[in-house]
Amino acid sequence: MGEFETFNRSLFLLINAGSDTPHWLVLLAIGIAKGLIFLLPVLMLGFWVWGHRGERTLVLKATLITVIALVVNQVIWAVWPHPRPFMIGLGHTWMLHAPDSSFPSDHMTVFGCIGLTLLLDGLSGWGVIILLTGLSVAWARVFLGVHFPLDMVGGMVVSFLVYSGFSPVWQRIGRPVTELAERCYRSLMAVPIRAGWLRG
């Protein structure tokens, strides 16, 4: 076992909830670990249906970056599978999870991709909020015993690398992709747009 893995396991044991953890804290962590990620599509949908062209461009860019990063995660899992703590009998597990590869974390990757895109491309306030929310989710999933701390670091690294690699491509294709998406949206949602419920 290398130094990084030793450090990873030691840090996990410092964060992971012990057998004397209050039940209310475990329930709170489960809510954070499972529920907060569902706020992201709601937020992105809000930016799209009530936002201006710039916000819609960011929604599309963040979505594509997220999809690419999740594919990268799948490749990493296939090439270098890493067991979750409960798969090696380490610590305490407070939440059910499939015994699949832990590194990098999909949850942290999603928060990282969307948060970094908004932070670095014009909606910095929302970007900070999303990244801080992602940090709470990262804590909860380690606390509950389904991830190692470095799984979360890996998710952020993948997010940053994909963002950095895709941004030059988006500079070339972002405008036509956004215009096409807006035309499709206006065609599909013509009635509520005319009624003033949605922004055209």
Cα-atom radius of gyration: 19 Å
What is the total number of structural domains? 1
Q: What's the number of extended β-strand segments? A: 0
Helix content: over 70%
Please report the distance between the alpha carbons of the first and last residues. Answer: 57 Å
Strand content: under 5%
What oligomeric state is this?
single chain
Overall mean pLDDT: 93
Structural class: mainly alpha
Tally of helical runs? 8
Largest pleated sheet: none
- From the spread of the alpha carbons, the general shape counts as elongated
Report the order of strands and helices.
Answer: HHHHHHHH
Low-confidence stretches: none
Task: Produce a short descriptive summary.
This protein has eight helices and no strands. The protein is an all-alpha fold and 200 residues long.
Notes on the protein architecture:
The protein is an all-alpha fold. The chain has one domain (21-194). The chain contains eight helices and no strands. The chain has helices spanning 3-15, 23-35, 39-50, 53-79, 106-120, 124-143, 149-188, 190-194. The longest helix is centred in the last third of the chain and has 40 residues, at 149-188. The radius of gyration is 19 Å and the shape is elongated. The N and C termini lie far apart (57 Å).
